[in-house]
Amino acid sequence: MLTCGHYDGSGDFAFRVGLPGKSGVGGGILAVAPGRASIAVWSPGLDETGNSLLGSIALEMLAARTGWSVFGT
């Protein structure tokens, strides 16, 4: 999920958020903080790669504030 779950935006999502996830064109994203949590976000506005813009931002902020990125802080 980390390397291919967000269409053409997978690498950018992995770098910015650091959580494995799968997005859908309906605006939903399911992400996993291994050993900690499963997180679902939804916002229908999509970015240029077809992923939820606000959902990605929310997950990026969550990972930064909790230190849950699989790459460390």
Automatic annotation (TrEMBL):
GO biological-process terms attached to the record: glutamate biosynthetic process; L-glutamine catabolic process
Entry annotated with the keyword Acetylation: no
Entry superkingdom: Bacteria
Annotated EC: 3.5.1.2
UniProt catalytic activity: L-glutamine + H2O = L-glutamate + NH4(+)
Pfam families from the UniProt entry: Glutaminase
Keyword terms: Hydrolase
Enzyme class: hydrolase
Molecular function GO terms recorded: glutaminase activity
Keyword tRNA-binding: no
Record note on quaternary structure: Homotetramer.
Family of this protein: Belongs to the glutaminase family.
Record-linked PANTHER family: GLUTAMINASE
Identification of the protein by name: glutaminase
Gene source species: Martelella radicis
Organismal lineage: Bacteria, Pseudomonadati, Pseudomonadota, Alphaproteobacteria, Hyphomicrobiales
